[in-house]
Prior knowledge:
The complex is a heterodimer of chains A (371) and B (313).
Chain A: E1 4-13, E2 16-26, E3 31-35, H1 42-50, E4 57-62, E5 65-66, E6 77-80, H2 92-102, H3 107-121, H4 136-148, E7 154-158, H5 166-183, E8 186-191, H6 194-200, E9 203-208, E10 211-216, H7 218-223, H8 228-233, E11 240-249, E12 252-257, E13 265-268, E14 283-288, E15 293-294, E16 306-318, E17 322-329, E18 332-339, E19 349-355, E20 360-362
Parallel strand pairs in A: 3-8, 3-9, 6-7, 7-8
Antiparallel strand pairs in A: 1-2, 1-4, 4-5, 9-10, 11-12, 11-14, 12-13, 14-20, 15-19, 16-17, 16-19, 17-18
Chain B: H1 2-46, H2 50-55, H3 68-75, H4 87-117, H5 123-132, H6 138-163, H7 172-197, H8 201-209, H9 214-222, H10 227-243, H11 246-252, H12 260-269, H13 277-307
Helix pairs in contact in B: 1-13, 3-13, 4-7, 4-10, 5-7, 6-11, 7-10, 7-11, 8-9, 10-13, 12-13
Amino acid sequence: xxxxxxxxxxxxxxxxxxxxxxxxxxxxxxxxxxxxxxxxxxxxxxxxxxxxxxxxxxxxxxxxxxxxxxxxxxxxxxxxxxxxxxxxxxxxxxxxxxxxxxxxxxxxxxxxxxxxxxxxxxxxxxxxxxxxxxxxxxxxxxxxxxxxxxxxxxxxxxxxxxxxxxxxxxxxxxxxxxxxxxxxxxxxxxxxxxxxxxxxxxxxxxxxxxxxxxxxxxxxxxxxxxxxxxxxxxxxxxxxxxxxxxxxxxxxxxxxxxxxxxxxxxxxxxxxxxxxxxxxxxxxxxxxxxxxxxxxxxxxxxxxxxxxxxxxxxxxxxxxxxxxxxxxxxxxxxxxxxxxxxxxxxxxxxxxxxxxxxxxxxxxxxxxxxx
Amino acid sequence: xxxxxxxxxxxxxxxxxxxxxxxxxxxxxxxxxxxxxxxxxxxxxxxxxxxxxxxxxxxxxxxxxxxxxxxxxxxxxxxxxxxxxxxxxxxxxxxxxxxxxxxxxxxxxxxxxxxxxxxxxxxxxxxxxxxxxxxxxxxxxxxxxxxxxxxxxxxxxxxxxxxxxxxxxxxxxxxxxxxxxxxxxxxxxxxxxxxxxxxxxxxxxxxxxxxxxxxxxxxxxxxxxxxxxxxxxxxxxxxxxxxxxxxxxxxxxxxxxxxxxxxxxxxxxxxxxxxxxxxxxxxxxxxxxxxxxxxxxxxxxxxxxxxxxxxxx
Lengths: 371, 313
């Protein structure tokens, strides 16, 4: 049985339904990231786990016991808030030990716990300061310290890195990951940043409009998106989603992608992809990640179905580690990811390799995955 | 050529600026004098002897300053028929003001805390009705309140008969405390609600997760971070209650529980022999000192607190 189990959870405010039946299971020691655009209900879901919002329907179980009706303080959870929520009138030590004080832990024990946490997070020299005298990164550490000192069953993080600048965010991300590896605690983490989700999670729940669009490992989410929303939301640059037509020919199924030059790209669909026969003669959405559309030298050598085609480069964006090229295909601007030292110029016709091992197909109406 | 015309226009700008400053500061000084003049007359008169007042100029500084009028006002002056000074009435006012200010401030803070952090269906209606209390004129509640206080007095009497103590019900000082607490609640709730509206809710949530209860959050998180608005509320309530004359004269206008303001009025109206202006002025100064003191001690928070909540962040 899963350590954290959320079953058919619903949350309504009057007639407005924020969460429309959420089912999630997470094993002990797992790192669940709830990711989605703003307003998707991810923070509400976290608040219901914390007990800060009541649920309308469904259940939340931790370690086999329902916590849905328990007060937040009785759930054995610790939470790190987006704004850190440090008590401005207390010192760092006071902030960290407030929870223990409320639980009646003796002073000596509290002191010991503070020292231990301060050591782990390297905030020993800050213990007598007030939150107002700390920098953003230090406040973040104190907020984590307040959660760590409790040694709870479940850690909840509500967009903890969104108030930090870009460089600090990467540092703290690594720190959180290290913390998870060393403590082995179960964590639920909310973010709108798909890179945080990919790097931290053992399981990702991509949410939109109060529904889990897809729940799986980062690898599954990235390589096997369940629908166009997940495909588009996860990954940077985003997956190219272009319109193509499926055709049945003598040598099997093909997908045809229109080009402004009038010379369409015709790609043979690998036998691996089932279920496209029904779409013969119809339009589908063809999805290919930028790294699966690259220069022939940079193509994955283990890929089975690689098709090369000559494309007109419209824009070249050297990004240092990679070179991005924009081409027009299927009525859309399509981003290809080339090696950094690929010698290409805008206006050139260049051979690009389509790695069809990584290609996915969606139904343009339902936006669901076909193959 | 161009440099010349630039410096010419520059001196013109300087001249306009100088005139503007003069006018502004001139007006400020003028109005300051107008406002401070009565206070000045009060202070100098209270240090003069009666001879000097009768013969001299009202604005002149005292020739031979004396604190005699102040001592007389404090310990000997006649209020109606009793001639024991105003000290008793001063303490009457303190006994009324301190509980009334403390109770109304704490209750206002609690109301604001509930109305912003523990919202319930209809909280806007409740707040609207409490706001309404700010707009009820004093005079309109005089008679209904008198009836209520009369009933409380009778309740006190029956308590006295059954359990041996009236718990202070019917006591004029307690009556005034009740009236001022009820009347002040609208304002104190308004102040605290607006302040707590901008108070980060995440702090309350964090404290909940930490295991703090309703009153623990209030005492450990909300109140320690509310100093500016507490100061505003205390100054506002203290000044209003201390200076109140209407309720004081209506519900404690005679007898030993009479507050300062009523006593002051009675001193001035006591018509035995000459009118001792210096003693009257000293009495008035004594009556005004506590509010002045509160302003001086806590005043620098006043404007800051009034602005808090109006502008977020």
